[in-house]
Amino acid sequence: MPDFFKEFQVLLASQTFQAFLNASAIKLNQLFAVQALLIKAGIPFDLSFSPGTRRLATGADLTIFINPTTTLNFVINFEPGGSIFEGFFPG
């Protein structure tokens, strides 16, 4: 398990992941790059997408599984405004 945490720290510190974390509205190619890093590192994740409506912006929810009781959840906005995932935290 220590190798996993070391790999995960390297992933979080990567330039690609830092750009992803610091963006207020990301581009699709940034999301693809993060997915590629997660797959390459063998880190399980779920990605949910909402195309948006006239009331809500297009967005996605990225959940990264650290262990059975710990996850990292990122709400991703593809355009300004709140998405369906704002304030949504599955139990």
Describe the overall structure.
The protein is of the alpha+beta class and 91 residues long. Helix content is 37%, strand content 25%. It has one domain. The chain has a 3-stranded antiparallel β-sheet with strand order 1-2-3, with no helix packed on it. Helix 2 crosses helix 3 (28-41). It starts with a helix and ends in a 14-residue tail after the last strand.
Question: Keywords for this structure?
Answer:
91 residues, alpha+beta
In short:
The protein has 91 residues and is an alpha+beta fold. The chain has helices at residues 2-13, 15-22, 28-41, and strands spanning 45-50, 59-67, 70-77.
Note the beta-strand portion: 25-35%
Low-confidence runs: none
Q: What can be said about the biggest beta sheet?
A: 3 strands, antiparallel
Please trace the helix and strand order, writing H or E for each element. HHHEEE
Q: Assign the structural class, choosing from mainly alpha, mainly beta, alpha/beta, alpha+beta, or little secondary structure.
A: alpha+beta
Report the helical percentage: 25-40%
Gap from first CA to last CA: 25 Å
For the largest sheet, list the strands in their spatial order: 1-2-3
Mean pLDDT: 77
Gross geometry? globular
Number of strands: 3
Number of spatially distinct domains: 1
Contiguous helical run count: 3
Radius of gyration: 14 Å
